Predict the structure.
Amino acid sequence: MRKADVIIIGAGPAGLAAGIYASRLGLETIIIEKSTVGGQLSVAPVIENYPGFISITGIELARRLAQHAKIMGAEIRENEEVTKLVLNPDKKIVISNKDNYEADAVILAMGAQRRKLGVPGENEFSGRGVSYCAVCDGAFFKNKIVAIVGGGNTAVSEALHLAQLVKRLYIIHRRDDLRAEMALKARLLNSPNVIPIWNSIVEAIEGDTTVRRIKIRNLKSNKQSHLEVDGVFVAIGLIPNSKIAKEAGVEVDKDEYIIVNKRQETNIKGVFAAGDITGGIQQVGVAVGEGIVAAMSAFEYVTGGWYAKRKQLKVVHLDLNAVKEEDKRGKIIFKFKP
């Protein structure tokens, strides 16, 4: 069984940011990712709202975060799926399809997956007219005709953002009224370029190289029709990847998001969570921030706090020709070789 100070499950922006900080603070850190680094970040064609980068592809940002984590000393294990957690207060066991691990602390950063419509053409046109994030991709549809599917607060909030950008916005909802808060709903329906299509569902997304139209069906009349659009935004909710955490005793809310406090602590001592799996605002910047908080909280947990007795940390040689060690006061420092 391999041992580490902290094991991070998930190599999206939250997990990678946690890995950067945990390693930099001197913790032996292993990041386990069921696919490849980046998570949802990897499927974003362009990111234009992450501070410091006017425009960067999701894959490139993920690559840079992963490289940073590795330089700091984190080990990243890709294509390895965690199948079970045993989260005792004194010892944490992480079981994957390839190995078993023991750690003093665990950071849960498995993210969430966008709930899909499950209709023909959805996967085919993902990134080519089908989007699950209006804030991320709305600017690509400026002065175009788009549709958004959904009727809750998330859908209406994203629709309000789109309405400021597009020429015409159809909002398709399976009921005859939106489920969003009254204030949001009123603002949206008063927008001159917004056209609601009630009691309807999307049955197919069609096009050539990009989305050209959608097939919709009215649930009351059962009548089918086509709607010419340049893009489709799906906002019918998220599914947090919290199943194995919940099975291990981690508390979740009614929507299955992991419950944390401001230090990203869960109900189990030594177990932290960060990023989309905790709910809230699903943005890269937020995930990175939560990952940092989780790593610093994990550090204090593992070491017993800044003024308590510390573990003896190994000297780690970095790719930056630096040596990371503790000074006499127990403070982590970097010494760069000439």
User: Anything to note?
Assistant: The radius of gyration is 23 Å. The mean pLDDT is 89. The longest strand covers residues 100-108. The helical segments are 13-24, 58-72, 134-137, 153-163, 182-189, 243-247, 284-303.
